[in-house]
Amino acid sequence: MASHSTRRSEIFGQPIAVINIGLAGFAESLRQQGVQLIDVDWHPPPEGIPRLTHTKSGVSIDEANAEAVRRIMAGRPVILGLDLAKRVIPGITERTILHAGPPIHWERMCGPTRGAVMGALVYEGLAASPEDAANLAASGEISFDPCHHHHAVGPMAGVISPSMPVWIIENTEFGNRTYCTLNEGLGKVLRYGAFGEDVYRRLHWMADVLYPTLADALERSDPIDLRAMIAQALHMGDECHNRNRAGTSLFLRTITPWLTRTCEDGERLAQVIEFINGNDHFFLNLSMPAAKAMLEPAEGIEGSTILTVMARNGTDFGIKQAGDPNRWFIAPAGIVEGLFLPGFSAKDANPDIGDSTITETAGFGGFAMAAAPAIASFVGGTAQDAINSTNEMYEICFTEHDHFTIPALDFRGTPLGIDVRLVMETGILPKLNTGIAHKNPGIGMVGAGVLRAPKECFTDAFEVIRDW
Amino acid sequence: MASHSTRRSEIFGQPIAVINIGLAGFAESLRQQGVQLIDVDWHPPPEGIPRLTHTKSGVSIDEANAEAVRRIMAGRPVILGLDLAKRVIPGITERTILHAGPPIHWERMCGPTRGAVMGALVYEGLAASPEDAANLAASGEISFDPCHHHHAVGPMAGVISPSMPVWIIENTEFGNRTYCTLNEGLGKVLRYGAFGEDVYRRLHWMADVLYPTLADALERSDPIDLRAMIAQALHMGDECHNRNRAGTSLFLRTITPWLTRTCEDGERLAQVIEFINGNDHFFLNLSMPAAKAMLEPAEGIEGSTILTVMARNGTDFGIKQAGDPNRWFIAPAGIVEGLFLPGFSAKDANPDIGDSTITETAGFGGFAMAAAPAIASFVGGTAQDAINSTNEMYEICFTEHDHFTIPALDFRGTPLGIDVRLVMETGILPKLNTGIAHKNPGIGMVGAGVLRAPKECFTDAFEVIRDW
Fold first, then answer.
1. In the predicted model, is pLDDT for residue A45 greater than 90?
2. What ipTM goes with this model?
3. Do A246 and A277 fall within a single domain?
4. How close does chain B come to A441, measured CA to CA in Å?
5. Interhelix angle A211-220/A245-262, nearest 10 degrees
């Protein structure tokens, strides 16, 4: 009630309202004093950033971008099934390891990516110990490649090795397929760079029990519509990047009747369901390849400045734009501001890592923070911060999503289509939320938080657009 | 962003802000014009409403109320199991029909309550047709009694007949048990006053398949903690009265491993899970008896002006207060403002009906609207209306809930403990949300909406408190 929150001035005898134009710092200090405030977001016009409207060959950038977001929104990602990576992901061999983010060699890999690679090589039986694995990885006998070069995405270290089971997602509107591993849970897990017996045991159980049980159920069920499921989860307090409790619930509700129809071993079924029920991030490994599947059809639209990829390998941050889909623009990965698990602090944190920023690229995740106020307990901040965060992202997005909406904003569509031009014109960088891995191999998760994408990627991309 | 939403005056060249004190109508018309507004909620002091602090025997009302809300918050309602009403609900016979709201005779029953009674008598085999049933009901051979007189609650018509299966909820902190039927779904269902073959067939399937399957699973599972489940659902966009999608999901996540461990018939299991998955209101019939179980221990605290019951039978609205738990204060049931299903309108609507206002009485439901902005698509209104609604209810509640919190209000506790004194002092009446039944027997649901409790109940209760 205003009568509670409004400070009354002793001089004026009534509440004071302030209009702040420009520098947010003034507004912030007034807000902290409980003053009612209208904060006008105003920046001086950027210098040296012209509005780019057409390529040299005369293609309208706005029209190209409209086509890009049209395709993204038209996408219908469904779960087709599960299979082993080596059987379905194009272009990988028994000695390929995929990782998150832009390309990187073993020598430049960060601790958690190294840890995950070492763990995966032991899991594959290619090395007897993490030390062995490190030697093998350094020997040149393993080919490392970004997930994104193989229609795949991976959270955090994002390591996919040949015998891991992967989700197969098909965008039925365009026919493209994408891939992602099964989510292991939080804590001491491979994707956060952990290795060791517990990690291998879980991965083997996932391959031996979870995968075939789910695969059988998916073979009988209708294809599961992930766009509809993400849309529903956004109405249930998820943003489908770092909060996936609703998505995980909705997936379970949908799959369990098919689990009971296809598996007669009640105890095995119970363990499969309890594993998923015990891991509220299970749906992340579905929301990510769904995002990738929706974004891919926009790749290669001449003149489009809409991002189709944002991804980090823990060392570098890379983006790609629709009009130039084979080119990475790369800058150092940023430092995450966040909440840390007991016993850990900022000094333990690896820089920003993972392909999960594909969710923000597709118009949800951090861009839909306003839908997920409860995420504050995971990544920090207040409910108002969450609303502000989404509101700010509208400034750099080409449109609002037709299918993903935010109840708290009266069902306004989420910000969709990060436009390199708008990022440069406004100086507003994409705001992401993310888990935080320990900087050393073998340890795992230490926290979660928020940060912005690095400006250099956008500056470089913009220079290239000027030459189009 | 303010730069988008702020109208600029052509004269002043900058946004205009208005401070409105008092009459909300002025604020509303300015808001419709998009003017930035600070709306100060100010009422003239109430006349003739003294602050009541002690009973004549010297009991501190504040202390009594503090004890009441302490007990309510200390309650731990868990699902103990399921059984037939006649075997577990105290004081009912083969010829008892329980109904929602305060006591009422057949002659004064509204259409949907009559419809549900008629349907239940056919379902029980006590009548061959709805017409037969109406004659039997009018004959005096059936004893009608409020659910609330038997530790039970029922949504809408709230009819419980002897052979219906009911949830058994135990408040493990105090040992009291409460009861509620299984939720049938929306539309043409008994609790909305519908009868007919479809209704009986569903009720028989629920008794023959759903009930024993769930009961077996519950016998093996640990007791399911409903306070924790409601608390989680409030973080997932439910308010657990008219939005129960998250609660239903969380219940399913928890029970399915025990379903698969206790039932070997995969197809039967699949049908049970699909029935629950197909009915997002399934959890309502758990949140209601959980609320009742938490409220009962507050009954009988001398000097407490906290409500322990708000309930409607479609003709009358009744309340009870903790300090005088056997006495109903009754007024005519109100008219619901809402959204109607296609083909129906306000003229088809029965007045307010059902025991489900036990949720608001226990500090959630309509009082937690701010947690559930997506409910606007079911009961109408905007996201801001939902926030305002919860904020207003703090004015008439004795405290804020320790365990039920609202992420969008930075995890502020929900308004808990409707204090008759505060209702009278502020003139603010409890705001409820509810489904809407057709006014004629045999039809069913026609919509959903919001309304306020009638003032007369509180005026009468207040007069009694003055004599304590």
1. no
2. 0.89
3. yes
4. 34
5. 80
Domain carrying residue B23? 2-40
The size of the A-B interface in CB pairs under 8 A is 164
Q: What is the pLDDT of residue A34?
A: 65
Q: Please count the other Cβ atoms lying within 10 Å of the Cβ belonging to residue A125.
A: 8
Tell me, yes or no, whether A278 and A317 share the same domain.
no
Q: Beta strand B36-40 with B17-21: parallel, antiparallel or unpaired?
A: parallel
**Total tally of structural domains belonging to chain A:** 3
Task: Say whether both A282 and A372 belong to one domain.
Answer: no
Pair A66, A83 in one domain: no
Residue A55 maps to a domain: no
Q: Which of B352, B337, B376 is nearest to B453 (CA)?
A: B352
**For position B203, which CATH number holds?**
3.90.1710.10
Report yes or no on B274 lying in a domain: yes
Between helix A111-123 and helix A130-138 the angle, nearest 10°, is 110
* Residue A110 burial by Cβ neighbours in a 10 Å radius (0-12, 13-18, 19+): buried
* Per-residue pLDDT reduced to its tens digit, B88-98: 999 999 999 99
Question: Quick check: is A438 in a domain?
Answer: yes
> How many other C-beta atoms can be found within 10 angstroms of the C-beta atom of residue B110?
25
Confidence bin at A15 (pLDDT 50/70/90)? low
Put simply, the chain A residues between 276 and 335 with a CB less than 8 A from any chain B CB are: 277
Residue A3 is nearest to which of B17, B42, B254, comparing CB atoms? Answer: B42
Q: Is residue A136 located within the same domain as residue A246?
A: yes
CB-count exposure of residue A140 (10 Å: 0-12, 13-18, 19+): exposed
* A53 located within any domain: no
φ, ψ at A130 (rounded to 5°):
-55, -35
Cβ–Cβ contact B31 with A under 8 A: no
Alpha helices (runs of H) in B303-382, residue ranges in sequence order: 358-361, 376-379
If contacts are CB pairs under 8 Å, which of residues 380-399 in chain B contact chain A? Answer: 382-384, 391-392, 394-395
A177-181 and A324-332 as β-strands: parallel, antiparallel, unpaired? unpaired
Q: What is the dihedral of CA B293, B297, B303, B307, to 10 degrees?
A: 0
Question: Residue A101 is which amino acid?
Answer: G
The answer on A285 and A189 residing in a single domain is yes
Last residue of a domain, one of A268, A289, A310: A289
For position A369, which CATH number holds?
3.90.1700.10
Which residues in chain A touch residue B383, judged by CB atoms under 8 angstroms apart?
407-410
Q: From CA B169, how far away is CA B172, in angstroms rounded?
A: 9
H, E, C per residue of A15-35? ECEEEEECCHHHHHHHHHCCC
Same domain? B22 vs B98: no
Q: Given the DSSP bridges, would you call strands A77-84 and A224-225 parallel, antiparallel or unpaired?
A: antiparallel
Instruction: Using CA coordinates, name the residue in chain B closest to A273.
Output: B257
Query: For A299-354, what is each residue's pLDDT tens digit?
Result: 999 999 999 999 999 999 999 999 999 999 999 999 999 999 999 999 999 999 99
Report chain B (468 residues): mean pLDDT per 10 consecutive residues: 43 64 69 65 70 96 98 98 98 97 98 98 98 98 98 98 98 98 94 96 98 98 97 98 97 97 96 97 98 98 98 98 97 95 95 98 98 91 95 98 98 98 97 95 93 97 96
- Which pLDDT score is estimated for A43? 60
Specify whether A391 is located in the same domain as A431.
yes
| Cβ under 8 Å to B: A residues 333-362 | none
Tokens of A391: 């509101």
Q: How far is Cα A157 from Cα A168, in angstroms, rounded to an integer?
A: 20
Backbone dihedral angles phi then psi of residue B104, each to the nearest 5 degrees: -160, 145
Task: Note whether B285 and B180 are within 8 A (CB).
Answer: yes
Domain boundary among A258, A289, A320: A289
Helices (H), B20-101: 24-32, 61-74, 85-88
